[in-house]
Amino acid sequence: MATEHFFEEVGCEDNVLVIGGGTGRFLTQMPPCAGITYVEKSPAMIRKAKTRQVDSTIEFLESDFLTFESSKVFDLVICPFFLDCFNASNLNRAIEVIGDHLPEKGKLIVIDFQPVTRIWLINLMHLFFRVFAALESKRMKNIHHFVIQNRFSEVKEAFFHENMIFSRLYRNL
Predict the structure, then answer these.
(1) What is the pTM of this model?
(2) Per-domain residue ranges of the chain
(3) What is the mean pLDDT of residues 90-97?
(4) Which among 19, 78, 162, 168 is most buried, taking Cβ atoms within 10 Å?
(5) How far apart are CA 89 and CA 66, in angstroms?
């Protein structure tokens, strides 16, 4: 599954930041870690995520990530289908905030849509979420390009569902 693909990168001593984790379905697949900070804007999604049985301590925070502040430094940040929500300027800002919460060589896992195959289907899904979830993004962007431009380097990648979804592991430079 795309959302859990690089979970072998999670160490038992790691502090993990999950941004926009939705219902938290993938949490049950995570290995035990020191702690998870789960930032989600939707109270309904947080309620669903809280029902997941996991072996890690989770701090749930209802917050808009662009205004999120924490004194914690995280070893790993996970963004499942989150970065595609933003327009270009806020996408750059979100990636900058992610980098601010990671040490040098900290890890970032991004799972999202790959707008290069089945473009009509991806655009249709994006339109659906834009209408029903009030996304600020008007169209799909090449998220990988934005992440690389914002002081991250790609370590490895994997593609799923006929290359419509990617999972990439990055390191903070």
Answers:
(1) 0.84
(2) 2-172
(3) 93
(4) 78
(5) 11
Tokens of 91: 């996408």
Give tens-digit pLDDT for 42-54. Answer: 999 999 999 998 8
CA–centroid distance for 86 within its chain: 12
Kind of pairing between the strands at 152-160 and 15-19:
unpaired
Nearest to 98 by CA among 87, 82, 116, 85: 82
Instruction: Name the CA radius of gyration of the chain, rounded.
Output: 15
- Does the pLDDT at position 122 exceed 80? no
* Calpha distance 145→164 (Å, rounded): 16
- Candidates 158, 160, 118, 171; CA nearest to 140 is 118
3-class secondary structure, 14: coil
Which of 126, 115, 26, 130 is closest to 78 using CA atoms? 26
- Amino acid, res. 173: L
CATH of domain 2-172: 3.40.50.150
